Amino acid sequence: MSLEALPLEMIVFVVTAVVAVVAALLVVLHRNPVVNAVALIVNLACLAVFFLLLRAPFLAAVQVIVYAGAIMVLFLFVIMLLDLKAELHPPRAGAFQRVMAVFAGAAFLSLMVLAMRRSRSTFAMKEVADAGHGTVERVAEEMFRNHLVSFELASVLLLVAMVGALVIARAFAETPDPQEPSA
Amino acid sequence: MRPPTEWYLAIAALLFTIGVVGVLARRNAIVIFMSIELMLNAVNLTLVAYADSFGASDAQVFVFFVMAVAAAEAAVGLAIILAIFRRRRSTSVDDINLLKW
Amino acid sequence: MLRWIWAIPLLPLAGFLANGLLGRRLSRRAIGTIACGAVLASFVLSVGAVVALSGAGEDLGAGGGPSLRWDPEHRRAQVTVGTWIPASAAGGLAVDWGFVLDPLSAVMILVVTGVGFLIHVYSIGYMHDDPGYSRYFAYLNLFMAMMLTLVLGSSYVVLFVGWEGVGLCSYLLIGFWYQDVAKATAGMKAFLVNRIGDFGFMLGMLLMFVHFGTLDIQTVAASAGGAGAAVTLIALLLFVGATGKSAQVPLYVWLPDAMAGPTPVSALIHAATMVTAGVYMVARSSVVYVNAPAALATVAVVGAATAFLAATIALVQTDIKKVLAYSTVSQLGYMFLGCGVGAFSAGIFHLVTHAFFKALLFLGAGSVIHAMSGEQEMPKMGGLRAHLPATYRTMLIGALALAGIPPLAGFFSKDEILGKAWEDGHLWLWMLGSVTALLTAFYVFRLIYLTFFGATRMSADARHHLHESPGVMTVPLWILAVLSAVGGLLGLPVALGFGNFLEGWLEPALASPLAHAAVEGSGHAAAGGHVWLLVVAALIAVAGWAVARTLYQARPEAPARIAARAGGLYRVLKGKYFVDEIYQAIFVRSFFGGAWALDRFDRHVVDGTVNGGGAGVQIAGQIVKLFHTGYVRNYALSFFLGVVFILWFLLVR
In 3D, which of A72, A78, A84 has the Cα closest to residue A33? Predict the structure, then answer.
């Protein structure tokens, strides 16, 4: 264990957790899509911090580079391109939907908590001997030794997605500049 | 003083739930997508927490793949939204209502 | 010849099938010929069979054809053509298609086929212009077949087949002109009231089977010995059936309404044959009744009461057929009275003579109605004697016979009944019967005077169409008139020194312990008393005629005055004691009330449940429909709720 039993870790965790949750709420609740996107980026960053705390530095890096850096940028591009306004009109699927969504979420959450309580006994803190856990080398070793095929398939998947996105985005390129969304 | 693993799991569950609510409660397709990303990330967090707890590296590999897939999915999905938006000038998913009685 | 008795009911049945199936394509002549021919053939066969019966010796050799069993002691030949319900080891009911010819059924088949034939011939003329010609004769033949089955049956079950069959034909023929709702309703009334009686009959049969283990007439008679509550009950229940079929109190109400049918039908079914089925049945079951004195007494009392009551109603009726209908009810009462005092052969004797003169009267009335172009109300007739001579003369003979004026047939048969009643000490019954005889003579001559004498009261239009009936109608009238006149020869009274032929002939077939006592006593002390009774009876009949003559010929204005004076009594009689209205109020209304309630129940509860089920499904569908909003988000929510539910189920159980 590199970090000492300092409350530092705890503090970091708590702060990051609060920020993450607030950001998540912003993603879901705020009207402005740009705010939503930025909040999501903040959330991803917080998660990266969590990864660091959990001895997964490589993944933290990948998270920031790929997720926050590429995917969210893509999101922002699309948002800007579409020039979305806020959701102006009242929902047509019924207000009931929103209420039920919250209720369902609460129910789900409580079930998750229950599940966690039930499985508490399996969480024996393990004394992990090696310090290489979570390093790039370890991850690479694991991946290329045991999951090579999956890796190759993932790369094929990315290729396919790329081509597909190009095709879809181009196929409907006849229309002029996008105007206001009329709902 | 390391936070117990359950706390990480709890945060993950909370984020996941928030993501679910976002998927169900928002009309804007892009925001729905973002909520999905939120959910995926919550799952990632769970996996990494367990990886740490058990000292297993396959969970981290799993997370890696999740991210790859999320990227692919985001790309294609946003392309679709773009295409649809060009047609209809709206991203509201409530416009998909041909099955309405 | 005796082997062929099963053909007697079958020939009219063949006629029914021929006319029923092919009638549309046949000419009137062919239809009439088939129908009458079938009955004539039955008659000839019957005559042959009866002759064979009377001459039969101790044994008849076995031969081919249906099995023939001969019982010399009872002079009884039974031919079994097949098995209906086979005998089983378990001892259940076994019924054979058996036909029995013995003295009693011999008398019946001769009357039925003979009078039936005359009426068939008459119908050719009467129904000549009716569009339902073939249907009429088909039904009439069917009736003959059923009646003969009834009379020849060896088992109560076969008898009941005929019983029900004649009831059916009665319904079909009463409602023959079914387009008229009133007539069709009359047919229904007859059938329904009969049904009530039949129910009693069936209960009686059931009890009979339980008690005796069989429904074969001969077997039951052999084992009916010993009085017992069961036998009495059986006898009473069977009599309930007879009450319905033979129009006694309280089930007589259908007979006056049955006049809605064609007049030959009234003559055949409701005078000569079907209504006598009850009397036949009682006589056939004489052994049973003799062993149930209480039941026998009931029969006598009911018969006498009916005779009296019906006669009172007949006094004031204005429809010519209704007078005759109530007269029939009354005379049937006489027959039951005869059987009830143990004089079964007297009852049968009256059955025979009544068949003659009542059929005659009905056919004559039909002739009058035919001549009057359908008018049946006597107040609209009068003075027809000059225009319808043959009809008048024959009807006069019939009236004399019905009134019981010697030496016509009615006198002898009626007297024998009353004589037996007096001899056995049933003074009240004798009194009632004699008063009824007075009334009978009165009303029948009232009918004659109103119809044939006096000033003509008919409309000019009817007068114009007046014509005597054709030969095909008057010849049967004359034949019946002759029979009414000389029919008394069958049963000349012992008291005057003659041998009562019919009584002797019927003796092997009937149980008459009372007759034995009478035979012992009649030849001596009672003989003198009996002559006195004969004289009294004759005087009563003449007195009745005299009163009628006074009121309706000498002083025609008198009846109206008497009616006005009698006032309430007159109204009650005219309204037939309001029995129909009472029945309507008590039974029909309550039945309809129950039916209405059940209808409501059926519609609201039963149908309601079924419809409710449908409505429930519909509502459920409406509710479920709410889930199909068409919005993807709602569906996604449903998915998620499903997931939550599964998780809950797995975690919380």
Answer: A84
From chain B, pick out residues whose CB is under 8 angstroms from the CB of C640. 20, 24
Considering only residues 2 to 61 of chain A, which have any Cβ-Cβ distance to chain C shorter than 8 Å? none
Nearest alpha carbon to residue B55 among A60, A149, A67, A142? A142
In the structure encoding, which two tokens stand for residue A89, read together? 């009109």
* Chain B residues with CB-CB distance to A35 below 8 A: none
C-alpha separations of A60 from A55, A65, C72, C297, C447 in Å: 9, 9, 127, 120, 129
pLDDT exceeds cutoff 50 at C527: no
Rounded to the nearest angstrom, the minimum Cα separation between A111 and chain C is 7
Q: Mark yes or no for CB contact C633/A100 under 8 Å.
A: no
Query: For residue C629, what is the nearest residue in chain B, using CA coordinates?
Result: B100
| Interchain CB contact of A80 with C (< 8 Å) | no
Q: How far is B36 from chain A (nearest CA, A)?
A: 10
From CA C291, how far away is CA C72, in angstroms rounded?
Answer: 24
* Cα of A14 vs its chain's centroid, Å: 19
Q: Which of residues 82-121 of A touch C (CB under 8 A)?
A: 92-94, 97, 100-101, 104, 107-108, 111, 114-115, 118
Contact, C537 vs C415, CB < 8 A? Answer: yes
Q: Say if residues C263 and C102 touch (Cβ distance below 8 Å).
A: no
| Domain boundary assignment for chain B | 5-88
Q: Which CATH architecture describes the domain B5-88?
A: Orthogonal Bundle (1.10)
Q: Please classify residue C287 by burial: count the beta carbons closer than 10 Å to its beta carbon, then call 0-12 exposed, 13-18 middle and 19+ buried.
A: buried
Segment A44-94, tens digit of pLDDT: 999 999 999 998 999 999 999 999 999 999 999 988 888 766 555 555 666
pLDDT tens, position by position, C1-22: 677 888 899 999 999 999 888 8
Asked if C325 contacts C258 with a C-beta cutoff of 8 angstroms, the reply is yes
Please give the Cα distance from C64 to C76 (Å, whole number). 19
Residue C317 near residue C474, CB atoms below 8 Å: no
- Separation between Cα atoms, residue C626 and residue C607, nearest integer Å: 28
ipTM of the complex: 0.90
Note the pLDDT tens digit of each residue in B19-47: 999 999 888 889 999 999 999 999 999 99
Q: What number of helices (H) and strands (E) belong to chain A?
A: 7, 0
Write down the residue that tokens 């069917």 correspond to: C142
CB contact under 8 A, C630 and B99: yes
Of C408, C411, C321, C407, which is closest to residue C363 (Cα–Cα)?
C321
How many beta carbons lie within 10 A of that of residue C617, not counting itself? 10
User: SS3 for C218?
Assistant: helix
- For residue C644, list chain B residues with Cβ-Cβ distance below 8 A: none
Contact check, Cβ <8 Å, B27/C636: no
Beta bridge partners of C83: C96
Mutate to test the interface with A, among C638, C639, C647 (most CBs of A within 10 A): C647
Q: How many CA atoms, within 13 angstroms, populate the side-chain half-sphere of residue C360?
A: 33
Please list the ranges in chain A whose pLDDT falls under 50. 1, 180, 182-183
Say which residues have a Cβ less than 8 Å from residue A3's Cβ, sequence separation at least 6: A9, B2
pTM of the predicted model as reported, rounded to 2 decimal places: 0.70
C109-165 tens-digit pLDDT? 999 999 999 999 999 988 888 888 889 999 999 999 999 999 999 899 999 999 999
Minimal-distance CA residue of chain B relative to A103: B21
